[in-house]
Write a structure and sequence with these properties.
Blueprint (H helix, E strand, L loop, with lengths): L23 H7 L2 E3 L2 E3 L6 H7 L15 E3 L4 E12 L5 E7 L7 E4 L4 E9 L22 H11 L19 E3 L24 E6 L7 E6 L6 H6 L4 E5 L2 H4 L7 E10 L40 E4 L2 E3 L7 E5 L4 E8 L6 E7 L2 E3 L1 E6 L2 E2 L11 E3 L2 E3 L4 E7 L7 E5 L14 E8 L8 E2 L22 E11 L9 E7 L16 E4 L3 E8 L5 E5 L4 E6 L2 E2 L8 E4 L11 E7 L7 E7 L2 H5 L3 E7 L6
Parallel strand pairs: 3-6, 4-7, 6-11, 12-16, 15-25, 27-30, 29-37
Antiparallel strand pairs: 1-2, 4-5, 7-9, 8-10, 10-11, 12-13, 12-26, 13-14, 16-23, 17-18, 17-22, 17-24, 19-20, 19-21, 19-23, 24-25, 27-28, 30-35, 31-34, 31-36, 32-33, 32-35, 36-37
Bound molecules: copper (II) ion.
């Protein structure tokens, strides 16, 4: 924990201690390739599969398919997207985003300044009768009044309508565009009032990617309080790319790019014993109040959830790796999203069993800062800590032909009452000279972005310093496995779980300011702090200064050991300078069962002129 100096990318893994839509021709060109007798269905799930099977998934060990791409054309990205669900024969609950062509979890690709128009339809199965046009305000989580959302819609000139339609249920949904600096208002990135029910007419999301949005990897997922974990764990997530990272980092020009979405999902084999050939000594399985396997403290044992890579499952207990085929020695930009509901990642590349470093170029959608790391445009790292919700982009050089290479996640120490995230493989990386190229490549001759006129966040003095802290309270204080309420409290206020029926902000800030926030963890498990709409930079980790040339929107906050008189904490510099940071929006733990159980608060950022 105390080995941190210049850069705290290591912090994010919290001491893992073991060691415009493609044209049909383009799709066909990349839709499959035969390599070594194996039919590599690189590209798309077929429409017929999707219609028949709902949220169809590849099989274990499969070549990792590239998500379908939907690209903006002439400044517009117009998409008809459906949210679907079904239950498999084995009782597995799945959710997914599907295009009209039956493509699942498409990557939305737009340039800064483009307008995104999503006609979004909730086609989830098993929902209650549609309540179009009502504002029931019912349900145990409550709902916001229709008048609230009308005010929000009217304020932006977007269509008035259905932002607070009915009660929050497992099949009501909405979209959050994680990381984007778009306004938190109805029809854009509001998650506090927007409820779309099965049977409702298509809901229009319409927003502009800001002209100065950093180019990189973002994502979209549902944000229904109380049910976000269920939907994300079921597969409702996908990437969103703001194009042009090679304009910010010209060294990347021409590189092939690969979008890798790591999701978690309920264990496919929950009753299986840990595989002895994977885990030499087997710790006992202890379940927490949610039924998840508790951290064993050994780096081994039954995980809380399975992982998948672009939906190729890598299930416990044998973890059959997915397959990624690359050309020997080829440099590729890997754009990795941890879309897990509750699983922390600590990624590593192994070549012939040896750890390889990669060139990290962006975190959480933002390219490395121009003045970072003595003028270099990347940082070499061997451990890639990625919290749930976090993204990391790095250049990977393909292994030599004939060598054995793999992508693994090392164990993450989530604390005494955290979930078990053991060491496990994710994918084998096969180097073949006849490997197909990834479908996308960065521009070969990009026009470099002009230097930013915005002062680097670290160089701005904070207007305010605040402290927030995580706590959790088991119903029975003597039984840590009893149902638990989760809190994220502003120091000085009374701890309360998030109340979705209230619009009263916990924090009022002023647009144009930057603020320093100390986030303290008074619990014995890891949490992942996330705020909507804005980015921050990590200033301190456990009281030690950190100087990383990155911005983030999600960061791990290390767990308390139950004894230390000082609670673990991080210090963040929050950036409220962008005018799109105005509005009412949440900050929360991105471990979604914590968020769903109350670990969330609201910030109101006032327009600068309105604050006296
Ligand atoms: Cu948490």
């Amino acid at each position: 924990m105390r080995r941190l100096g210049l850069l705290c990318l290591f912090c994010a893994m919290a001491a893992g201690r073991v060691g415009g839509q493609d044209t049909p021709a383009k799709v066909a060109e990349n839709g499959g390739a035969v390599v070594g007798g194996t039919d590599l269905r690189i590209g798309h799930y077929s429409a017929s599969q999707a219609v028949e099977g709902g949220c169809v998934r590849p099989v274990e060990g499969a070549e990792v398919p590239e998500p379908p791409d939907l690209r903006s054309v002439d400044g517009f990205l117009k998409v008809d997207l459906a949210f679907r669900s079904h239950v498999t024969a084995k009782g597995e609950k799945r959710y997914c985003y599907v295009t009209v062509n039956g493509e699942i979890a498409p990557t939305l690709r737009a340039k800064p300044g483009d307008t995104v128009i999503l006609n979004f339809k909730n086609e989830a199965a098993g929902g209650p009768p549609a309540q179009t046009g009502t504002a029931a305000g019912a349900g145990h989580h409550g709902a916001k009044s229709m008048s609230n959302q009308r005010a929000a819609g009217a304020a932006t000139g977007t269509p008035e309508g259905t932002c607070a339609n009915g009660a929050m249920t497992p099949v009501s949904t909405n979209l959050h565009f994680h990381g984007l600096t778009v306004p938190a208002v109805c029809h854009q990135d509001d998650v506090l009032h927007t409820l779309i029910q099965p049977g409702d007419a298509a809901f229009e999301y319409r927003f502009a990617i800001p002209a100065d949005e950093p180019p990189g990897l973002y994502w979209y997922h549902p944000h229904i309080h109380g049910f976000t974990k269920t939907q994300v764990l079921g597969g409702a997530s996908a990437a969103l790319i703001v194009e042009g990272i090679e304009r910010a980092l010209p060294d990347l020009a021409g590189l092939p790019e690969r979008v890798l979405v790591i999701r978690d999902q309920n264990l496919l084999n929950p009753d299986a014993a840990p595989s002895p050939d994977v885990n030499a000594s087997l710790p006992p399985v202890v379940l927490d109040a949610d039924g998840d396997a508790r951290n064993t403290g050994t780096g081994t044992g039954k995980p809380a959830e399975d992982l998948s890579l672009n939906f190729v499952p890598v299930p416990y207990p044998k973890y059959p790796p997915a397959t990624i085929t690359v050309k020997p020695g080829e440099r590729q930009l890997w754009r990795v999203l941890n879309a897990s509901a509750i699983t922390y990642l600590s990624l590593q590349l192994l070549f012939d069993g040896q750890v390889r470093s990669v060139e990290v170029v962006a975190l959480d959608g933002v390219p490395m800062h121009a003045q970072g790391a003595s003028g270099n445009h990347f940082i070499l790292l061997t451990h890639l800590g990625v919290p749930p919700g976090g993204r990391i982009e790095f250049v990977m050089k393909g292994p030599p032909e004939g060598s054995r290479a793999s992508l693994v996640t090392r164990s993450v120490n989530t604390g005494a009452v955290g979930e078990n995230d053991p060491t496990r493989p994710i994918a084998n990386i096969i180097a073949r000279r006849d490997a197909p190229e990834p479908r996308s490549a960065l521009a070969k001759s990009p026009i470099p972005l002009p230097p930013s006129s915005t002062t680097w966040l670290r160089d701005v003095s904070p207007a305010v310093v605040r402290k927030l802290y995580f706590t959790e309270t088991p119903l029975d204080p003597h039984d840590p496995n009893s149902p638990t309420t989760f809190f994220l409290t502003v120091d000085g206020q009374t701890p309360k779980p998030f109340d979705p029926a209230s619009d009263v902000p916990n924090i009022v800030a002023r647009q144009g300011d930057v603020e320093d926030w100390v986030i303290e963890n008074r619990t014995q498990e890891l949490h992942a702090f996330h705020i909507h709409q804005v980015h921050f930079t990590l200033l301190e980790w456990f009281g030690l200064a950190v100087n990383e040339p990155f911005l983030r929107d999600t960061v791990n906050v290390p767990y308390w050991d139950g004894k230390n008189p000082v609670f673990p904490r991080v210090k963040l510099r929050m950036d409220f300078r962008d005018r799109n940071s105005v509005g009412l929006y949440p900050y929360h733990c991105h471990l979604l069962e914590h968020e769903d159980s109350g670990m969330m608060g609201l910030i109101q950022v006032e327009p600068r002129a309105s604050v006296k």
